[in-house]
Design brief:
149 residues, five-stranded parallel β-sheet, globular, alpha/beta, 7 helices
Length: 149
């Protein structure tokens, strides 16, 4: 295994219960050709939390970025974000909320859970806009990295 390329790769956890949307996010990330990503998909909030906590002890490499839908089965996105923000090893993990809900609904739901994401994006309805999402996700990720102290 080439460790050098693994270091240059951004590991992304996509938390999305709609398989079509999850695939579209993966394709959008691939469209951003100068940004090498490796994706894992969790199709419900409980699986996402299990994956994140599994990475906590260093047993596996944790994701560098979480793309999180809010409307999920088992445990919703706000609960997943609460776990991230209240777990020491995960607290600074960049999280982009990507939801079909309007922006004010997303922010309200997250705010009620007493947590914040790094970025909030509304899922595009148009295929071309969805494929262009990779650029916006990368911007959010790099902005979050720049704001870490």
């Amino acid at each position: 295994m080439n460790l050098r390329s693994a270091d240059d790769m951004t590991r992304v956890l996509i938390v999305e219960d709609n398989p079509v949307d999850a695939e579209m996010v993966e394709r959008a990330l691939q469209e951003e050709q100068s940004w090498t990503t490796e994706t894992t998909v969790a199709d419900d909030g409980e699986k996402a939390i299990e994956l994140l906590l599994e990475h906590r002890g260093g047993r596996q490499q944790r994701p560098d970025l979480v793309i999180l839908d809010l409307n999920l089965p088992k445990r919703d996105g706000a609960e997943v974000l609460q776990v991230i923000r209240t777990t020491d090893e995960l607290r600074s993990l960049p999280v982009v909320v990507l939801s079909s809900s309007p922006m004010h609904v997303m922010k309200s739901k997250v705010h009620k859970a007493n947590v914040e994401a790094n970025c909030y994006l509304t899922k595009p309805a148009d295929l071309d806009e969805f494929l262009a999402l990779g650029k916006r996700l990368r911007y959010c990720y790099e902005k979050a990295l720049g704001s870490k102290s």
